[in-house]
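Researcher: Structure for this, please.
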Amino acid sequence: MNRPDSAAPQALAPLAQPCELERSLVATILLNALWLVGIPACLFGLLDRGAVLVTGDSMVVTDVSYFLIASLLFASWLCFRPGGRLRSPSRLAESAPELPLVASQIHRLPFPYTSQIYHLLNLKHLEHIHSFSLGNLRVVEVSHLTPTQSGGRLRFKTQLDSPFNVLRLWRRASVDVDLVLHTPYQVELTIPAYANKKIAVLFSVLPQGDREHYLQIQMHSNLGWPPMVLRGILLLAASFTLLEDLPYLRQLSERNLAIAGLGQSSHQSMQLFQRYVDLYGSRLDQLAEFALPPFDLPVRPVTRSWWCSELLQPLILGSIQ
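Model: Predicted structure, token format:
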């Protein structure tokens, strides 16, 4: 086992102004986050009005009206959400983790897909780019890469120093995390939780030419939490971390990454990216031609209940386009 060096990351150039697509994406993420937070608020109001109606000595017309208004507001809030309905490419489902699907998102990003791949396979981003959202999580130990035919698996140990870190709700302070490169388009991050449970996040990067890509985030877990609560938490967490990613991805795209050169890094945190370069670095132009439309096929519903599928599908699948 090797301990990664603690050298500080190199300073990056000043950022250019975000493009229109990036600004639209940020606005959509914030609207969806507001929509998710509004669900428990509306539900609380509905339950409060229902309790007043049931516990009252007599049925008052005013109480009935308030309850009906709260019910209409809650139903409307569920139906009229930001973004479109989620569609998922079936060709990418082959690497899905063997865990229940909790939530999924698709984002269109105005950056080359190689920037996203570099970002996902570089362990440093967990400490530096997501230092706020992950509560100053540290990568303290990186093991040797285990190659596979189409990628590889890298195991590393992460440490939560703060006793108030919110991640302690479902994981221990020190755990071994697996980062897996399944294909040139898919990366999986698996985090162990309490009681031998797991959270697995599958990132699918779909090139759309040489300047854009779609990012699909599928969150799988067998945690015993209430499903709707877990979905809401994971969707908000995924949206917030993506907001942290945007400035860094923009910087990477402006630097015009030379993948072959970056792959020569000997840093322990870059082993999986080195494996990616060894396998696919000579045919990046061919990989970028993979332009499967990500909105052509419907996702298999998480629930078979028709009312839950129609009214609560936004919370279940968390479509952010």
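Researcher: Any notable elements?
Model: Residues 1-16, 84-93, 291-321 have pLDDT under 50 and may be disordered. The first helix runs from residue 20 to 55.
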